[in-house]
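Quarterly update from the structural biology core.
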Amino acid sequence: MNLGKGAIMGDMRTPETILKSTFGYDTFLPYQQEVISNVLAGRDTLAILPTGGGKSLCYQIPALLLEGLAVVVSPLISLMKDQVEQLRAYGVPAVFLNSSLSLEEYHANMRMVQNGKVRLLYVAPETLLTPRIQALLQTVKVSLLTIDEAHCISEWGHDFRPEYRQMAEVRRLFPQAACLALTATATDRVRADIRHTLDFSSKNEFVASFDRRNLYLAVVSKNGIQRQILEKLQDYRDQSGIIYCFSRRQVDKLAADLISHGHSALPYHAGLSDMERRRNQDAFIRDDVQIIVATVAFGMGINKPNVRFVFHCDLPKSIEGYYQEIGRAGRDGLPAECILFYSYADVAKIHYFIDQKEGSEKQTAITHLNALVQYAENAAVCRRKQILGYFGESSEWNDCGNCDVCLSKTVETLTDLTVPAQKFLLGIHRSGERFGAGHIADILLGSKNQKVLRWQHDQLSVYGKGEELTRKQWMHLARQLLAMGYIQQSSEYRTLSLTPRGVEVLRNEVRVMGVLQEAGSPEKRAAVTQSVGADQQLFNLLRQKRKEIADAQNIPPYVVFPDKTLIEMAAHQPQNAAEMIGIYGVGEVKLRRYGKAFIQVIVNYRRLQQDADQGVLHGT
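Predicted structure, tokenized:
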């Protein structure tokens, strides 16, 4: 019987029952249900959902309800492998076809597809374009064609890939299949390009909020990056994170520095062999190492939910790229920290590489860079509000409560900063215009550090005359003076010098209006386990059990259960299967596979706690 485009299999299952029974979730995230319904109705659909917004379920649930095969176009081998491992843990038959497979495995997966034993097939766009795979797919009913990371279609996207452009031709091979295009990063212009290329109607477009409220966003002035990173990592012992650097050399150096200071870290960049990169990435995914120091070559295929921090030691190339990279943090919905360490020297460095480009490619790169510089230097407007505005999303609030601007209670009205500006400019002038912002701040604050004393800058008339502001406030003022053109910075040594406009300020010919940050700094955020009342000791025991099971099955720990599930277990402490099935992320298959082992850990822990309490009660 030919059921036609979007035909649904004749059983009683619904998206809601599959959400709970297979994946263990009680409710859909915003727009998931609408996208799934649209796909099940056989309509071509464009969905823009934020990282961590549940894009995968938008095609995985229809794949379990539609008759036939769902083909998923995915850009990276690691991403396919990760998705297939997670689906198999849920009891969903899925395979991928790519160069990481042996010839025997490749043919075995092709046979499974041909024999109808697979519900989802993951392929790279290059693979889907080959005659062999197109011939294979002509032998089966393809019910859904999903194009993941669809921003790669657009030349205006930050990750354009010509092969993605050809997906418009491929989808014509499967006229009965609905087509779903998904991405987390797309401006209005990119969305229009995707629709035009795939011949989609704008009526079937779903755009969720780009806001990721669990991510703390901050821009910090770069001043001794190794020291700054080491200080930040004190808050993240035994927790997973990614640190991005601009060059391979920087990656290798920082990774070595972190290891020498006792941190669990590995490098990742294109200069390593394929085997080294794969080994280091697997070590990170499997919690064998906590920190990856990487170039932007790392991360697109990473779906590790418990990344607690993403630090950028250098300026990314675009807001889209930055949003995607910080999107690797906090995918479990729990708090995570994203810090961009910024220096104007980074801008000059990227400009140098942009100058090697030509034509529209160069203009696009300049546009992307200018938007990012504006974001980094605008300390008067909520970081989150700036990012949302870039993607065309308006926000009614002015204070998000979870970025450096909002938490430091920056005064958003402009203030007359002429007097402190004159002090700073005079410090630059009197010290010979040969030093950076940090040194000028030290002079104004009356520091007795070695550098100030060696240059006899404690003898300058401005020495110690700036104690009304904190060092952080002076650095913030320096960034504003730079952005407003009163000072300039050399690209090589980051030394500051006055511009003609700066001289006018010293002569009282121009007033300086800007923003003065308050001296207070945001309070340190509590550990994620504290936020839901979870027992930290039990959580650690559950993590140990998860690692033991994952290693035995040769899969990443989060494929067994994500941290969010273990935290709920540690908070609610379920004693039996009926209680365990109510925990986030525990579906029927995972309950059968893993439930007993985790219940046993909880029961044993509670028994030990009770015995300890009895001992205290009886004085033993």
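Residues 8 and 616 are 61 Å apart (CA to CA).
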